[in-house]
Design goal:
The structure holds two protein chains of two kinds.
Chain A lengths: L2 E5 L3 E2 L5 E8 L9 E7 L6 E6 L5 E3 L7 E6 L4 E6 L8 E8 L5 E4 L3 E5 L2
Parallel strand pairs in A: 2-11
Antiparallel strand pairs in A: 1-3, 3-8, 4-5, 4-9, 5-6, 7-8, 9-10, 9-11
Chain B lengths: L3 E4 L2 E3 L6 E7 L7 E6 L6 E5 L3 E2 L7 E6 L2 E6 L9 E6 L6 E2 L3 E4 L1
Parallel strand pairs in B: 2-11
Antiparallel strand pairs in B: 1-3, 3-8, 4-5, 4-9, 5-6, 7-8, 9-10, 9-11
The chains are: A mainly beta, B mainly beta.
Chain lengths: 119, 106
């Protein structure tokens, strides 16, 4: 079945840009009616939907983060990416990538990538 | 944004118990409601989608019901591996939003 794996730095300085990549295996990012999604979870807290991208490149973002977030897709590498600018300590969290199914359910998840924002 | 409110926030139970977790949406979402289980240090796992459809591979002791604004996740007979955090999520309206979570504890 499809597998997702996040990669990227675990430490980002305040005001800099957080960049993460999700690599999809055992399935093509170019096929199927799926949305490729980013979610985050601060330690001990709940889940926050960041945004999603379709294989065509169409994106949707959480309005609370929209001004700082860009999600892109590279179908040749079977990857999609998250860039979040001007980070602060409040952006410290585990960042997950996931595939959303037909009902919007997040049916496949990466294992998560802890990103700490600190100088 | 649609606000999702779960109750209770934490729940103590025993192996073999039947437990129910509730989720309320701030406006009608039809049946666009999904339930997840999360164990410490792991990614969430979808249990129920579309309010009542069991995700493939999920044991039948898990069930979901409801429509509109009120939803329920039921575990018919708890096993030790069911002690975890549970989240509901609405997927009708962007941005998709989650409940604050329910910690199911022994």
């Amino acid at each position: 079945q499809v597998q997702l794996q996040e990669s990227g730095p675990g430490l980002v300085k305040p005001s800099q840009t957080l960049s993460l990549t999700c690599t999809v295996s055992s399935g093509s990012i170019s096929t199927g009616p799926y949305y490729w999604t980013w979610i985050r979870q601060p330690a001990g807290k709940g889940l926050e939907w960041i945004g999603r991208i379709y294989r065509s490149g169409t994106t949707n973002y959480n309005p609370s983060l929209k001004s700082r977030v860009t999600i892109s897709v590279d179908t040749s590498k079977n990857q999609f990416s998250l860039n979040m600018s001007s980070v602060t300590a409040a952006d410290t969290a585990v960042y997950y990538c996931a595939r959303a199914g037909g009902f919007g359910e997040l049916e496949h998840w990466g294992q998560g990538n802890l990103v700490t924002v600190s100088s | 944004d649609i606000q999702m409110t779960q109750s209770p926030s934490s729940l103590s139970a025993s192996v073999g118990d039947r437990v129910t977790i509730k989720c309320r949406a701030s406006q009608s979402i039809g049946t666009y409601l999904n339930w997840y289980q999360q164990k410490p240090g792991k990614a969430p796992k979808v249990l129920i989608y579309g309010a009542s459809s069991l995700q493939g591979g999920v044991p039948s002791r898990f069930s979901g019901s409801g429509s509109g604004t009120d939803f329920t996740l039921t575990v018919s007979s708890l096993l030790p591996e069911d002690f975890a955090a549970y989240y509901c999520q609405q997927s009708l309206s962007l941005p998709y939003t989650f409940g604050q979570g329910t910690n199911l504890e022994i």
